[in-house]
Amino acid sequence: MVERSVWDRLPDELIERVLALLPLSSVLRCRCVCKQWNSLLKSDSFLDLWAEISPRNLWFLVYHTHISVAAFSPRAHRWNNLPLYQWCALDPTQVFLLASSGGLLCFRNRSFDCPTLIVCNPVTSSHRVLPSMSQIREIDIVGMVADKDSHSYQILVTGTAEPASSESITELYDSRTGRWTYHCRSTQEFLQFWYVVHAIWHDGSFYCLATPVNTSQGYRLIAYRMENRSWVDLNVKMPPGDLRCLSLVLCGGRLLLTGKIVEDYVTRSICIWELMWESLEWVEIGSMPDYVLKDIHSPNSILIQCQGHGDLLCFSTHRGWQSILYNLTDLTWVWVPENNACGGSPCQAIGRNNLVGLPYEPSLSARV
C-alpha cells in the first residue's frame, strides 16, 4: 500500500495525469477523497487534460422510463440505467430528449404553446434553460453540435410560427453569445413535417431525412448549409423498395442509412446503405442475417430504430430491451443482453414513444 506521504510529495501535474487516465466513475469517487483532490479534479487544467487523454466511454441511449434512461455501454457490454432527470433536476413528465453532442443533452419542455429547450451535462449535474426562440413555436427539426476546444455548442431549430403555417423558419442558438439568431425562411415542401426530426452534424452541415406530410413525395436527404444559411434537397435517389423505419446515422465520418424493406406487409430485410459522396447515391454495404431478423422482428416489434458511432451500429425495437450491435469493421452481430431494470422483467410496458436512439459520451469538461 502506498503511503499518503508519497502522494503528498508528487507534483500536482503528475497527479492530474494519473487521475485523468482513470474511468469517469473512478474520477468522481476520487473527488470524495479530500478537499485538495476535490479542488484539483474540478480545476480547469485537470478538465482540459481529462478531455485530452481520458479513456473514451460511449453509451447508446436506447430508451427511457419515467425514472431513468437506459444506456448501453459497448465497451463494458452492460446496461447503465441513468437517473438523468434527477441529475439534471428535471421532471420527466414535463420534458423529453431531443439531441446529444459532446457530453451534453438537449431536452425540450412538453408545452406546445411556448417550446423551451434545456441543455444538461448529467455528469456535472448542471443545466441551462435556453431563452425562448424569437419566432418558432412549432419545432420540426433539431440539430446539435458541440466544440470541445472552445467548450461551446450550437443548436439548430427549424419550425413554424404556428401549426398551420407552410413557411418554415430556422434559428440558431450559440452558447458563446447565449442567444438565438434568425437564419432563414423557406416555403420548401420538404420542410413540412408531422413529427420532430433529429439532424446530424457532419463537415459544416446538418443532415436529416425529410419525411414530409405529403408522404407520396417519399423520403429525401436534405442538408442545412451553415455557411449559406439555407436548406437544400440533395436529390439523392433513395434505395428501391418499400422503405420503412429509416434511420440516418454517422459512423466514423461515413453517412449511413438503415431501414426495413417491406413486401406485401412483410419485412423482407433490414439493410445498411452508405452515401457515396461523389455520385450522391446510396450503396448497400450490409444487411441483417435472416436468423437475426427473425428474432428481432417479432410480430410485436414493428418499429426498428438505429443509432451509430465509430464502427458500431445499434439496432433496437420499440421494446427497447431487444437490441443488437453490428460492427462495421468486423462485420459481426452481437446481441445486447436484456436490461432487467423494471423489477426483473424485460420492460414489457415500454412503447415506441419511449425509444431515444442517441449516442452519448459522458464528459466532465462539457459546459452548459
TrEMBL record:
InterPro entries: F-box-like_dom_sf, F-box_dom, Kelch-typ_b-propeller, KIB1-4_b-propeller, SCF_F-box_component. PROSITE patterns: FBOX. Keywords: Repeat. SUPFAM superfamilies: F-box domain (SSF81383), Kelch motif (SSF117281). Residues 4-53 form the F-box domain. This is F-box domain-containing protein. It comes from Aristolochia fimbriata. The lineage of its organism: Eukaryota, Viridiplantae, Streptophyta, Embryophyta, Tracheophyta.
